[in-house]
Amino acid sequence: MTKIPEVWIFAEQQLGQIEPTVFQLLTRAREIAPRFKVVAVLFETPTQHLAATLAEYGPDKILVVQDPRLAQVADAEQATLLAHLVQRDQPNSFLFGATALGRSLAPRLQAKLQTGLTADCLALHFEDELLVQTKPSYGDNIMCEIVCPDKRPQMATVRPNTFAAQKVEPDRSRPELEVVTDLPWPEVAHFQIIAEKKVATPQTGLSQAKRIIALGRGAADAASKTVARSWAQKIDAQIGVTRPLTDGGGFSVKDQIGQSGQTVAPELLFCLGISGAVQFLSGITNAKVIVAVNPDPQAAIFSVADYGFVGEANGFLTALQQVDQRKQAALK
Amino acid sequence: MKIVVCIKQVPESNQVKLDPVTHNLVRQGVAGKINPFDRHAIQAALAIKAQVGGEVIVISMGPADNEYCLREGLAMGADRAILLSARAFAGSDTLATGYTLSQAIRKLGAVELVFFGRQAVDADTGQVGPIVAEFLGWPQLTLASSLTLKDRRLEGMRRLGDLEQTVALTLPAVVTASNDLNQPGYLQPRMIKASFQQEITVWQETDLAADPLRLGVSGSPTVVRKVMAPQRKQQETVFLATDPQQAALDLHAALHAKNLI
Ligand SMILES: Cc1cc2nc3c(=O)[nH]c(=O)nc-3n(C[C@H](O)[C@H](O)[C@H](O)COP(=O)(O)OP(=O)(O)OC[C@H]3O[C@@H](n4cnc5c(N)ncnc54)[C@H](O)[C@@H]3O)c2cc1C
Ligand SMILES: Nc1ncnc2c1ncn2[C@@H]1O[C@H](COP(=O)(O)O)[C@@H](O)[C@H]1O
Question: In chain B, what residues touch A137 (CB-CB under 8 Å)?
């Protein structure tokens, strides 16, 4: 009997929290490889018990490596442990989130296994057992379709928020569980984690926000910022900015949307005073409904907008708030 | 201390287009420039050299005109430059590139620190640094946002999502520089001029003791099947009324109907 091909997903976690991209990848893997075995590979300390969270997204199997030493672990150690597992089970493909950790770990594993790795994928599908990977190049100006015909596993990192995560029915979420505790621990000297701390992100992640108000250079004046903040509070939105707004004036790189900032996937996105440079647009391709406000009717932002207002951000937003107030009042 | 910085030459502009007929890349502007992120890597190497002495060697793999980026490296203050250029290297993906660079670093001997940029702005992978670290069997600090050297211990920080890690590595080690690490200065005309007086060493595959099967196309497991123009969300934009009051009213109604506000 030929073995069912396996798609592995590295279940990246930070201090006991699974990185959301993992859920997106589990969902996508089930869609593109319904006949393959979808396996989540989890590294945790014996007290963490993160498998149940992963199970909600319907993997066929969860492969858990449990070891207290995983509390603080070097990239090189994790790559060595993963290589042991891959050599044992020979998966068809292995997916990572294109997060800082995924992008550090996956290439080390690739080098160990001497196989191919495609970075920062925006689309994935299978042709039979061949993984077809689409990745952007030249700052998202060009898309490349990449395959790895001869080497296995086929490896890819996938840009966060490229796919939607979907939980499965509870009766479908009974994956096979294998806990591995006896992997030979790699001797990786010369590396030590001195400290780890969660950086306070007051607005728990732009990338997770359901509603975002994005401000660009055309809406960077104090009046526009004030009206944007009050509108954001009203509709429970977070504020994001384009790159020019990150050097001072109350915003930093953490608030930046785009190629060198965050990829966002809100249900509603306001783009105020934003021209729509490709580096910005590449961060908002997964926004559902986009409203753009810009006095320049030729601005590129309108090419991706669902609703466009040609005019000043401040005046428009003020009018929108007034309309909202009137409607709220009428409901009372 | 012998410090290597791997630098890549990238097109002057990322505004590349596809020729609609041939489907080949049309690059505007012929010349290339140093990958902007690699300037942070050179700057970091120069800072370490300023502290402990030694030499900074810039290495680039690519066609003969990669000389440009190497001269930029020299003008920033690197001591010497090596160009890895041979037909056998053509068509390398990140794995073959990493292998070739690591063989060059081995050949140099006694290298204690290798710097990379966080990623190349054309390929956008950021894979080459960790691949070289693995081939050399050295520890790595990726996306370093701070770095200090005390004795033979390198201490630095990186951000993993919401997590900030402070780590220590003993040399030899690989570091990929985040753009927060430092602020590269402007080139001085005197240095630019001097860089053109300097010799650039060229190494081919025969200089590297390399396995020919791991170079270029044969050493590259990935194949680019197709290049395409990105499909932007094709959107019929509804333009709102020119009067802000009316526009606001219409938009409010539309968003409300979709349960968005
Ligand atoms: C390698 C690289 C990476 C980059 N990464 C990013 C990234 O991640 N994110 C990012 O955003 N940028 C990034 N950039 C920068 C990007 O190219 C643009 O420069 C930037 O997005 C422009 O920001 P903007 O739209 O706010 O400003 P501008 O391009 O200056 O546009 C301002 C707009 O405001 C409009 N305007 C003027 N007055 C008003 C008004 N009263 N009301 C409303 N509108 C008004 C103008 O018509 C104009 O269209 C990157 C660039 C490079 C080279
Ligand atoms: N051909 C090359 N020659 C020298 N260094 C390179 C080359 N390609 C990539 N690098 C280095 O590897 C880093 C990451 O590149 P990449 O993996 O292509 O995104 C770059 O910032 C450079 O430091």
Answer: 122-124, 227
